[in-house]
Amino acid sequence: MRFSLNPNAPDKRLLDESRRTRAMTWIMAIMLFLTVLAGALGLGMFAATAQLDRQLAGRLTVQIVEPNAQVRDSQAAATVAALGKVPGVIRATEADRARLAELLKPWLGDAGLDPDLPMPAMIDVEMRGGDAAAVERAARTVVPNARIDRHAQWLAPVRSFMATMSWLSVALMLLIAAATAAVVLLAARSGLDTHRDTIEVLHMLGSTDLQIARLFQRRIAFDTLLGGLIGSAAAMGLVWFLQTRIGGLGSEMLSGVALQQRDWFILLLLPISFALLATFAARSAVLRALGKTL
């Protein structure tokens, strides 16, 4: 017996008379819609986490707390000069005090703009392959009570949350894949029960279990691929819309969530992967059932 890949071929219609089988397409569309959304979230969070790591690696802030403005300014200048000589330090600059005052204004009001208000000197340090301990020693050599804040340390909870969301997305994708396999198994077994008489006739005509299994696996593979493409297209359209909205916010941290060309290609592979998964699950279920009952 010869089997065509065309889903409308006569041998396919033997197992595709019921309209209920069309529900398989929409179930797979919903599954792939959710999977692509979860995948986009995971890829975006992984990218944002990597960007955050790159930005925070070797970033330090040195605070000099001194009520006397003249002493504070001289200590800040000496600290900047000392930090510039530390191996691995590529930039050490004092933060603009007017900018700091603007940042404090929402909490202190106009008092934050008062030039007589004691305000610590903030020195932003950027390193590349250097030793943070060497920076700390150099700063405290000039100012013994200088405070060193590592950006990676106080943003660690944010990074931990982003990593958790990334792996949660991966777990969600695996859960949906398992649910998809379960749906395929149920659909295959339901098809066997519905078309039992037809299958017996095919057996009498000389069809083997493998040939009959191909009828089911091709039908389910086509439904899965068609539904997957529909669901994936809808999900990717939604992801693109959300990405344009995020880009309009102008947030440096949220901009890291944007998907790259590689990420879009990975999302495009999901409906194909699910079609292969459905084909394998249908083939295994049908062959097992035919071997036991028919």
Topology of this structure?
Elements: H1 10-13, H2 23-56, E1 59-64, H3 69-84, E2 89-94, H4 97-108, E3 121-127, H5 132-142, E4 147-150, H6 151-154, H7 156-194, H8 196-204, H9 209-249, H10 261-293
Protein model, in words:
Helix 2 (23-56) crosses helix 9 (209-249). A 4-stranded antiparallel beta sheet has the order 2-3-1-4. It contains 10 helices and 4 strands; from the N terminus they run H-H-E-H-E-H-E-H-E-H-H-H-H-H. It has 2 domains: 10-53 and 157-293, no CATH class; 66-144, no CATH class. It has helices at residues 10-13, 23-56, 69-84, 97-108, 132-142, 151-154, 156-194, 196-204, 209-249, 261-293, and strands at residues 59-64, 89-94, 121-127, 147-150. With 294 residues, it is an alpha+beta fold. The protein is rod-shaped and about 100 Å long.
